[in-house]
Specification:
2 domains; Rossmann fold; seven-stranded mixed β-sheet; alpha/beta; three-stranded parallel β-sheet
Length: 308
């Protein structure tokens, strides 16, 4: 894969890998369009959270760039749960909508779990519905969460065949840690999940060929967690304040850092994802990939000829 090298560590270029995934998606969409089907992605956004607005804008742009039709539904926080569930029911029944994404977090007045489970599993491009979560654990062909799927692609392009490698995942969230473990198991890795109750986690992590950090704590994973030559995937996106030097000394600015202490870890790791520019672009790329996959599954479910 396309990478750059800094000292002895390889920087895993998530942006370049995401562009390759998006090129594959665009080619698939072209074939689908030639057969009379254009995938459609509905995105629902509630409230004025700035980060959510940025995420949705980026998702819509990528969808349009690869030829996927996008349908935006924006609401303020007065939208009730009943109204949102009614919209989801409408989108579930709409044949032009192949993927449904409700941007999280939702207002406190709305039950996120009820909303996620209301989405048709065949249109659940986030891969969060119970049917998809259970299917992933069982190794069935289902829609899988975008971030772990993107991480797996980065690992496959960096390491090649993952069979027999020991992978340690730091963090056991339903969104990243647990589905990442299932994906790596299906890739024939030996997998260890570390969490807040793990005993001597550093010693366990130092045995790993692959370390996936998804714990939500800035710079928690440093060189002391890694064995020489490990491949490190940093899923964390943490906003931290930093003092400004020079003319504006005394002021503070916000910057993004991962769960990995990059400066320390890069002295030991064989390859590592930067933050930003590592895992982030892959999440949106796999959202587009899931939309195409959902379109094909729905076509088969309807008993229609297979789409290429």
């Amino acid at each position: 894969m396309s990478t750059t090298t800094q000292a002895s560590v390889t920087l895993i270029d998530g942006k370049a890998c995401a562009e390759r995934v998006l090129a594959e998606v665009a080619e698939s969409v072209k074939h689908l369009a030639a057969e009379g089907t254009i995938p459609g992605l509905a995105v629902v956004l509630i409230g004025e959270d700035p980060a959510s607005h940025v995420y949705v804008r980026n998702k819509i742009r990528k969808a349009e760039a690869v030829g996927i039709h996008s349908f935006e539904h924006r609401f303020d926080t007065t939208l009730s749960q009943a109204e949102l569930l009614s919209l989801i029911d409408t989108l579930n029944k709409d044949p032009e909508v192949n993927g449904i994404l409700v941007q999280l977090p939702l207002p406190d007045t709305i039950d996120e779990e009820a909303v996620i489970q209301a989405i048709d599993p065949l249109k659940d491009v986030d891969g969060f519905h119970h049917a998809n979560v259970g299917g992933l654990v069982q190794g069935r062909d289902v829609l899988t969460p975008c971030t772990p799927s993107g991480c797996l692609r980065l690992l496959q392009e960096t390491c090649g065949d993952l069979t027999g490698k020991h992978a340690v995942i730091v963090g056991r969230s339903n969104i990243v840690g647990k589905p990442m473990a299932s994906l790596l198991l299906h890739a024939h890795c030996s997998v260890t999940l570390l969490h807040s109750r793990s005993v001597n986690p550093k010693a366990i992590a130092r045995q790993a060929d692959i370390v996936v950090a998804a714990v939500g704590r800035p710079k928690m994973i440093d060189a002391s967690w890694l064995k020489p030559g490990a491949v490190v995937i940093d899923v964390g996106i943490n906003r931290v304040e930093q003092a400004v030097d020079g003319e504006n000394k005394g002021e503070r600015k916000t910057r993004l850092v991962g769960d990995v202490d990059f400066a320390s870890a890069s002295q030991v790791a064989k390859a590592i994802t930067p933050v930003p520019g590592g895992v982030g672009p892959m999440t949106i790329a796999y959202l587009m990939q899931n939309t195409v996959a959902a379109t094909k599954r729905q076509h088969r479910q309807a008993g229609q000829p297979a789409l290429t």
